[in-house]
Amino acid sequence: MTVANTLETILEKQALKELVDTFANLADVKDVAAQGHLFTDDAKVVSHIKGQGTSEFIGKEAIVAGFSAFLANFNDVYHANGQFLVTDLTDTTAQATHYCQVALTSEQDGVAKMTKFYIRYEDQYVKVDNNWKIAQRTSHFLIVENYDLAV
Fold this sequence. Notes:
alpha+beta, Nuclear Transport Factor 2, Chain: A, 6-stranded mixed β-sheet, 28% helix, globular
């Protein structure tokens, strides 16, 4: 492996990490339309809560509609990304596993609520017009917490 190849690998991994972080930042401001541009046209998103399949969206339009409907339930959204490990990388495809903690606030019957998700994402990416896009995301909601917020 040459220094040039090593540098290129580092730059590609950084670009993938920026894609993941951009997704989270856009979720925090509920800019789902902009999130849609991070996916391929035929992307697939599958979610599992504690091993049980809960949703599946195929295609960018379905993903945007599904994310919009979900985020409409919450007042505040906060993502904190953690580990990010690229497990396969070619010139045009990549796979990665990464972790995220999500905090969501809402109000139910006049009571402020907090929902927290601890998620492991398994992503597949493709390079389109020299930009990385999410082609498939499998979301594993490993831990779910719900509780009242103190005012």
